[in-house]
Amino acid sequence: MKAINKGVDNARDWKPAENLPLAIDALRSAQRVLITMHRGPDGDALGSALALACTLRDLGRQVTVYNPDELPYNFRFLRGASEVAKSLPSEAAFDATVVTDAGAYERLGPEVPGWTGAACC
């Protein structure tokens, strides 16, 4: 069964055979990575972001995890939760941005760099 993004205009299909290699290539070449998720993060959004951040840091990447909202108290014990940035400096630059959970760009925080259509998967 295919998930449907209700209320999302022009939702893109997830095609693993096409999209996964693009994501891997983007992360292999990136040194500065922004990881974010929908506002009001739940466990799967935050846990995925923090796990990926841990892995990328182990691979030598500079990683920023961003969400402008307060993290739910029951997830604050997670490794890296205390380091989630609530804002991004205006001069911040990233080679790749990963969104671990959001049905639409509009569900992200206000400081997430705009999507240009490049290297999107």
Describe the structure in your own words.
The chain is α/β, with parallel strands linked by helices and 121 residues long. The chain contains 2 helices and 3 strands, in the order αβαββ. The protein has helices spanning 16-29, 43-58, and strands at 32-36, 62-66, 96-99. It has a 3-stranded parallel sheet, covered by helices on one side. Strand 1, helix 2 and strand 2 form a beta-alpha-beta unit. It starts with 15 loop residues before the first helix and ends in a 22-residue tail after the last strand. The model has no long low-confidence stretch (mean pLDDT 86).
Which SSEs are present, and which pair or pack?
Elements: H1 16-29, E1 32-36, H2 43-58, E2 62-66, E3 96-99
Structural class: alpha/beta
Strand order of the largest sheet: 2-1-3
CA-based gyration radius: 14 Å
Roughly what percent helix?
10-25%
Q: Give the averaged pLDDT, no decimals.
A: 86
Spatial separation of the terminal alpha carbons: 20 Å
Q: Helix tally?
A: 2
Which sheet architecture does the biggest sheet show? 3 strands, parallel
**pLDDT under 50 segments (min length 5)?**
none
Strands, count: 3
Question: What fraction strand?
Answer: 5-15%
- Compressed to H and E, one letter per element, the order equals HEHEE
Oligomer: single chain
Overall geometric form: globular
